[in-house]
Amino acid sequence: MRIYSVVMEEITWYTGLSPTAFFTILAMMVVVYRTVCGMFVSPEDFNKPPIITASKNLGFDNEKPAPEPVQLGEITEQELRAYNGSDPNKPLLMAIRGQIYDVSSSRNFYGPGGPYAMFAGKECSRALALLSFKPEDINGNLEGLDEPELDILQDWEYKFIEKYVKVGQLVPDRNTQQNECREQIQDEDKKEAE
Ligand code: HEM
Questions:
Q1: Which of 52, 107, 110, 116 has most ligand 1 atoms within 8 Å of its beta carbon, as the pocket-test mutant?
Q2: Over the stretch 142-156, which tens digit does the pLDDT of each residue have?
Q3: Cβ of 158 less than 6 Å from ligand 1
Q4: Ligand 1 in contact with 125 (CB < 6 A)?
Q5: Neighbouring residues of 14: CB distance < 8 A, sequence distance ≥ 6
């Protein structure tokens, strides 16, 4: 107890501050020191690659490299949906202007929890042209798009051609094909009757 009061008296005598003020200022200096130190890289860590926090948080750290892309040929939009990342054994696919790309190498973008997961397993032309994430825009309908929007889409297409392997193309689903066929036959019948 005696040592304690001697220390407190000494603090006041040397610093001219009350012990409470002295310890508050000391604590603040420690906090500032630690904050400033945290802003600099220590010499041992200098040449190490940066840690990408988003991918760490999303748990992609221990992932194996994506398997080699497999050619699928012609599939329907309905079939493409299965490649949205919900099955980890299937590749991640995405279509632009009917061409299907294997985007498995960018699982951090398109895999579950990724910022662009909504595009996986989908034809995304309209959304990319409009720079939109709205579910109603995630399709291949190019109707009503103006020239600048089609240019944006073109840029996306070039980026995908350059970065990813094309593994197939979309075809209308069987029902649509049958309906189109039926309509064509009806049109031809009509023309013949005229
Ligand atoms: C606030 C606005 C946005 C920011 C800050 C942003 C940021 C980024 C960044 C940093 C990348 C990684 C680029 C790379 O490493 O190649 C990226 C990729 C991407 N962004 Fe965005 N983005 C934004 C808006 C959008 C919008 C509106 C869309 C489309 C609707 C979009 C679609 C994409 C796609 C598809 C990729 C992945 C491309 C690939 O597979 O390489 N982004 N974005």
A1: 116
A2: 999 999 999 999 999
A3: no
A4: no
A5: none
3-state secondary structure the chain: CHHHHHHHHHHHHHHCCCHHHHHHHHHHHHHHHHHHHHCCCCHHHCCCCCCCHHHHHCCCCCCCCCCCCCCCEEECHHHHHHHCCCCCCCCCEEEECCEEEECHHHHHHHCCCCCCHHHCCCECHHHHHHCCCCHHHCCCCCCCCCHHHHHHHHHHHHHHHHHCEEEEEECCCHHHHHHHHHHHHHHHHHHHHC
Ligand 1: residue whose CA is nearest its atom 33: 116
Q: Which atom of ligand 1 is nearest to the CA of 133?
A: 30
Q: Which residues of the chain have pLDDT under 50?
A: 43-53, 55-57, 59
Is 104 touching ligand 1 by the criterion CB < 6 Å? no
Q: What is the pLDDT of residue 177?
A: 60
pTM of the model: 0.68
Tens digit of each residue's pLDDT (9 = 90 or more) over 30-41: 766 776 655 555
Separation between Cα atoms, residue 9 and residue 118, nearest integer Å: 67
With beta carbons less than 8 A apart as the criterion, state whether 124 and 65 touch. no
